[in-house]
């Protein structure tokens, strides 16, 4: 299995994701890897860690998610790996519930999101975003 973290999706990947079937609420699993030091394009805040820069983004994203009827269900630091193998373990896991793909898209394209995106870019080395939906099993 190939695992490749990214900061932004490639256009074909984004088109496939947002062009998918709308099927109601979903939970996005975010596996986050931070830069050791924040890297702002303007050279500011060089004393911040990547995790600290991302936390600025995360605090505001929580408000945006809740504003559209969603909820951040969980966030926590990765502390170990019991099963499997990855070359470089993620730093944090976050689970965010969204009421719909349309709501997620609206948030992602909103001016409010654009205003905080620089914190995400400054702190994030890469991530995986995995869209999930509730199932009746397990």
Number of strands: 4
- Any idea of the CATH topology? Alpha-Beta Plaits
Task: Please mark out the parts with pLDDT under 50 across 5 or more consecutive residues, or reply none.
Answer: none
| Helical content (DSSP H or I, runs of 4+) | 25-40%
> How are the strands ordered across the major sheet?
2-3-1-4
Strand content: 15-25%
Distance between the termini: 24 Å
Mean pLDDT level: 92
**How is the main sheet built?**
4 strands, antiparallel
| Tally of helical runs | 4
Question: Radius of gyration, Cα only, in angstroms?
Answer: 15 Å
Proper CATH architecture = 2-Layer Sandwich
**What is the helix/strand order?**
HEHEEHHE
Structural class: alpha+beta
Oligomer: single chain
Coarse morphology: globular
User: What is the count of distinct domains?
Assistant: 1
Written description of the protein model:
By secondary structure, the chain is an alpha+beta fold. It has a single domain, classed as Alpha-Beta Plaits (2-Layer Sandwich). The protein is built from 4 helices and 4 strands. A 4-stranded antiparallel sheet has the order 2-3-1-4. Helix 2 packs antiparallel against helix 4. The protein is globular and about 45 Å long. The model has no long low-confidence stretch (mean pLDDT 92).
């Amino acid at each position: 299995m190939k695992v490749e973290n990214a900061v932004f999706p490639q256009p074909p990947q984004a088109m496939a994701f947002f062009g998918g079937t709308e099927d109601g609420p979903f939970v996005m699993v975010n596996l986050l890897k931070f830069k050791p030091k924040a890297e702002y394009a303007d050279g500011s805040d060089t004393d911040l860690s990547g995790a600290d820069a991302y936390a600025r983004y995360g605090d505001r994203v929580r408000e945006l998610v809740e504003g559209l009827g969603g909820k951040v269900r969980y966030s926590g630091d990765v502390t170990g790996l019991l099963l499997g193998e990855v070359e470089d373990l993620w730093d944090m896991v976050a689970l965010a519930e969204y009421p719909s793909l349309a709501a997620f898209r609206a948030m992602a394209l909103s001016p409010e999101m654009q205003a905080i995106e620089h914190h995400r870019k400054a702190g994030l080395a890469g991530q995986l975003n995995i869209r999930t939906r509730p199932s009746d099993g397990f």
